[in-house]
Amino acid sequence: MMDKTFDPAGAEARARAAWTDADAFRAGRPDRAGAEPYCIVIPPPNVTGSLHIGHALNNTLQDILARFERMRGRDVLWQPGMDHAGIATQMVVERRMAEAQEPGRREIGRAAFLDKVWAWKAESGGAIVSQLKRLGASCDWSRERFTMGERGAPDEQMVRAVTKVFVDLHAQGLIYRDKRLVNWDPKFQTAISDLEVQQVEVKGHLWHFDYPVVDEAGAETGAIITVATTRPETMLGDTAVAVHPEDERYTALVGSYVRLPLVGRLIPIVADDYSDPEKGTGAVKITPAHDFNDFEVGRRHGCRPINILDSEARIALDGNADFLADANPDAEALALHGLDRFAARKAVVALMEAAGRLREIEANTHAVPHGDRSGVVIEPYLTDQWYVNVKPLAERALQAVRDGRTRFVPENSEKTFFQWLENIEPWCISRQLWWGHQIPVWYGRKKDEAGTSGARTLPFALTDFCATSEADAIELAKAYYGTPNVVVVAEPPAFKRTDPRNYDFRDESGPYEIWRDEDVLDTWFSSALWPFSTLGWPEKTAELARYYPTNTLVTGKDILFFWVARMMMFGLHVTDDVPFDTVYLHTLVRDASGAKMSKSKGNVVDPLGLIEQYGADALRFTLTALAAQGRDIKLSPARVEGYRNFATKLWNAARFAEMNGCALDPAFDPKAVREPLNRWALGEAARAVAEVTAALEAYRFNDAAAGAYRFVWNIFCDWTIELAKPVLQGEGVEAGLKAETQATIAFIIDQIAKLLHPFMPFLTEELWAIKGEAIANRGLLTLQSWPDLSGLADAEAEAEIGFVVDLVSEVRSARSETGVPAGAQVPLVIVGADAGVRVRVGAWHDTLVRLARLSEIGFADAAPRNAVQLLVRGSVAALPLEGIVDLGAEVARLKKEAAKAEGEIRKLDGKLGNADFVARAPEEVIEESRERREAEAERLAKLQEALARLSDQAA
């Protein structure tokens, strides 16, 4: 016996336990040995993470595909795992150490710190896995992988995969070390990726400085050129001033020099398209070491970069050979050494003002890059890092998409993919962290021309040994130095013995010391290998042979470049095949008003809270129903509550069926059904299955959910159950008819459970278990076959029942639109009915009267006066409203409402047609205006339809 109400929490716990006990989601089940494989790799969540609403959407869509294909008989592997999240994890552990007043990581050393990180992972990491299980994720949890392996040991498969790719790319000349600008986080002392940078609107200033022009002898000519900057402190590193080549104000000055105030360095005025004549003064100071655009301008014009900051973003001038070369700095400028960048900013402005070189201070709101985890302002910083030359790899990825070997859904994502990869820059892969894959490179002193160990001054030149292991690095060093006398030391000798007199330069009799690079790889490097490393590569495993290439990747559009493109590049380069055949890119989940969710706004929706309140199925169905391709989701708890009501509606219908004797009949044959209502319901079920199947195959998740919803709520609950009540509950009903109807309804509930299972796995598994209690060896729903109802469409039954449904629906709409009181019973006249229509109306007379709230049904050759006329499948039906509705007043009301709707549409059209509004307004405001316009247009259409029905009658 079903409980009166559906208990989501209880059903979820029972289903999870049943799936676990049956090992239901394990790939390679014996019964699927000959089945076609289907593989999805999960976008690995951070080990530090908790389930957020984006995870909920992403994993719901993946789970729908996994369950759908599993029910279609395929051998499904949904590969789970987690990302080690370098900077985030290191930050968490260091914060815990600080809170416990323990020594910092540099005090305890690398090995001890990494032990603490692994201990934290074992204790607290991976909470998101249990949260994904609560959502219903049907991953093969026995195959869970971690981007750092089990303990990060060099011989572990996941570590070997990363190391091998690095070493191979290095040997191919595609990985190299270079000095370039990076996003530098002064707090964490590391380079970070663009994805880890947040642009924050800041109310700052634009300082206008006068730079004096000098002649060939270096004497000031009296002319000045004014530059504007938001970062005055960086002027200490200026090496040029750029103007646009067509800017007539400066044409005569191109090729001249200015003397950099405070510093005394002569720097050229160059012509470059980067300078915008319409912006600021049209002249731009060029600081190649502290601005990405300036770096490129400097490279085009041969201007050397001068780094004037240290790794903590303090002014670094003492002993700075690059800064001091060709300069004659003021004493006040040299005194800036050691100042924090923001203190230096104030000091530089004060010095320029004192020198009479500050022309203007202008208020300026602009975007400033901040570290998403540190919260500090990010500096473009010139430093030595490891890079991948991804240009050759990108070309193969582009060609794979051009050839159709990998396709994007929605298709317009390809344009973004092409734009990024066709303009790709070298990828900085090194990070100044301890948690991560340590770069497999060892350094030693470079031999001089004579073949000995190197110069007698420090720092000495270095050579590197890239190897898959320390032992291999030692062998490479032995071969390089021509001696077996090589040892590995923990750190560079120059760090230990900075005084050459204390260093043993010997005559090559002592051991040669090599030491490993301290940096680790960017987290995205190991993630780029995810589709094949999780399947056992570099070993040629059975799983790799069976499941690679994988099938569908489901991920957010925001990491198309950072993750998807890199998997494409590495997959093709390493395995010579695409990593997946389809990439589905979903959009963002926003709040109810369309604003992006953020903690600072207080509008973050907690999926776990929604699961607690409404159940996982309700949340899943909500996200799916709203997941239209290319359109962000607006989520509110009210939406989730609405789909909780959907679950309740189905539960109540199933309980009603149980109370009215609708039990599964093992001998039931849907193709042998005789009663029109039952044939119609089965035909509609077949149509729903076909509709949902086609939508899922096309990744139209919202359409699939809409098709399932329409059938379950409208066709089954609202119509099938309602139309079957006289048979189920009436007196003197023929026994065979009743039994057939009961069996049909029970059968359809089973098909609904299958149809809804990918979307609402807990509710449906519960219904399946309850309804099949009397059936031996029924098994779990999640391992059943996808419904196959082909051949059940019945045109004759659809014509009969469809007429009844449409007639009742049209009468109800007309009553609502014309203001007929809800309790009023009105007559219905069928105009010019043929014999077939008369038979249908006669057969369903009582049902029509009951459901449409009619006083009577009659037939006539012409419509009565003052009647609303309805067209129902070629037949005309009329509702005489004289004495029930004041038609003239109703027409006036409808015209007034229509005029208001038209006015609102004009107002919104004006707003949306305003280029300035579209350019300046937040995205969510524009989207809200578009949606309001759509809603008003729909409302106007309904009002006009109602007016068309009434106007002739009121004339």
Helical fraction: 40-55%
Report the structural category. alpha/beta
Radius of gyration: 36 Å
Strand content: 15-25%
Number of strands: 30
In angstroms, what separates the terminal alpha carbons?
59 Å
Low-confidence stretches: 495-508
The count of helical stretches stands at 32
Shape, per Cα inertia axes: globular
What kind of sheet is the major sheet?
A: 7 strands, mixed
The residue-averaged pLDDT reads 92
Report a brief summary of the structure.
The protein has 955 residues and is α/β, with parallel strands linked by helices. Strands 7, 8, 9, 10, 11, 12 and 13 form a 7-stranded mixed β-sheet that branches. Strands 6-5-14-16 form a 4-stranded antiparallel β-sheet. Strands 19-18-21-20 form a 4-stranded mixed β-sheet. Strand 20, helix 15 and strand 21 (512-516) form a beta-alpha-beta unit.
Structure report:
The protein has 955 residues and is α/β, with parallel strands linked by helices. 44% of the residues lie in helices and 18% in strands. The protein contains 32 helices and 30 strands. Strands 7, 8, 9, 10, 11, 12 and 13 form a 7-stranded mixed β-sheet that branches. Strands 6-5-14-16 form a 4-stranded antiparallel β-sheet. α22 (637-659) runs parallel beside α24 (701-729) and α30 runs antiparallel to α32 (923-954). The chain is globular, with a radius of gyration of 36 Å.
Draw up the topology in text.
Elements lengths: L7 H14 L15 E5 L11 H19 L3 E5 L1 E2 L3 H14 L5 H4 L1 H14 L3 H9 L9 E2 L10 H15 L3 E11 L4 E3 L4 E18 L5 E10 L10 E4 L13 E3 L6 E6 L11 E4 L5 H10 L19 H4 L6 H4 L6 H14 L3 E14 L7 E10 L2 H12 L4 E3 L3 H10 L4 E2 L1 E2 L9 E5 L16 E5 L3 H12 L4 E4 L3 H4 L15 E5 L3 E2 L1 H5 L2 H4 L8 H6 L2 E7 L3 H16 L4 E7 L2 E2 L16 H8 L1 H10 L7 E2 L2 H23 L16 H22 L3 H29 L5 H22 L4 H11 L23 H23 L8 E6 L3 H9 L1 H8 L1 E7 L6 E6 L2 E6 L6 H26 L2 H6 L2 H32 L1
Parallel strand pairs: 1-2, 3-4, 9-11, 15-24, 20-21, 23-24, 25-26, 27-28
Antiparallel strand pairs: 5-6, 5-14, 7-8, 7-10, 7-13, 9-12, 10-11, 14-16, 17-22, 18-19, 18-21, 27-30, 29-30
Helix pairs in contact: 1-26, 2-21, 12-13, 12-19, 20-21, 21-22, 22-24, 23-24, 23-25, 23-27, 24-25, 25-26, 30-32
